[in-house]
From TrEMBL:
InterPro entries linked to this entry: Cyt_c-like_dom, Cyt_c-like_dom_sf, Cyt_c_1A/1B
Cytochrome c domain span: 27-127
UniProt source species: Massilia forsythiae
Signal peptide segment: 1-26
Protein name: Cytochrome c family protein
Alphabetic keyword roster: Electron transport, Heme, Iron, Metal-binding, Signal, Transport
Molecular function terms from GO: electron transfer activity; heme binding; metal ion binding
Taxonomy of the source species: Bacteria, Pseudomonadati, Pseudomonadota, Betaproteobacteria, Burkholderiales
Length: 148
């Protein structure tokens, strides 16, 4: 019995490093939904997204900073004059308080460029999910069901 068990055990152990190498591979595709988990404690996206600790992030591209109707922003964010696009979002997410000094968003920033790109692509998927902006467009827009 012991003679059988030991090789089986060794075989298992010798596979472990290979398994770990797979899951933490730096070359694999970066999953934007997974990257968004860093944001999800404060931000919501999707058809029922609401302001929570942070504003909802639907229809973000082209949206004026500090304009989601159901969230109370810092003066810094409201006065930033930013209209969110690929560039301003990337800069903000790399270093929030550098781009909007005095922002209430407490986030250390994303240093990994591929993670940032995947995250922005993920957020783009919610352009039509209701923008929460103050233009009343939500009511006129047909509801869209996004895949979970
Ligand atoms: C600890 C909570 C928290 C985390 C984590 C967080 N945010 Fe925020 N975020 C906020 C708050 C609060 C604000 C409003 C800031 C203000 O009013 O100054 C904000 C504002 C924003 C804005 C501006 C929105 C607007 O309506 O102008 C964007 C874009 C944003 N966050 C994206 C992200 C993304 C993407 C992540 C994940 C990488 C993230 N945030 C992580 C709390 C957070």
């Amino acid at each position: 019995m012991n003679r059988l068990r030991l090789p089986t055990f060794l075989l298992f152990v010798s596979f472990l490093p290979a398994l770990q190498a797979c899951s933490s591979s730096a070359d694999g595709p970066v999953d934007g939904a997974k990257a968004f988990q860093k944001c999800a404690s404060c931000h919501q996206v999707g058809p029922n997204a609401r302001g929570g600790f942070g504003p909802q992030l639907n229809g973000l591209f082209g949206r004026r900073a500090g304009s989601s109707a159901d969230f109370i922003y810092s003066d810094a964010m409201k006065r930033s004059g930013i209209v969110w696009d690929e560039r301003s979002l990337a800069a903000f997410l790399r270093d929030p308080s550098k781009v909007v000094p005095g922002t209430r968003m407490r986030f250390w920033g994303i240093g990994d460029e591929r993670e940032l790109a995947a995250l922005l692509a993920h957020l783009r998927g919610f352009q039509q999910a209701g923008d929460g902006a103050d233009d009343g467009a939500d009511a006129r827009r047909p509801a869209i069901r996004l895949p979970k």
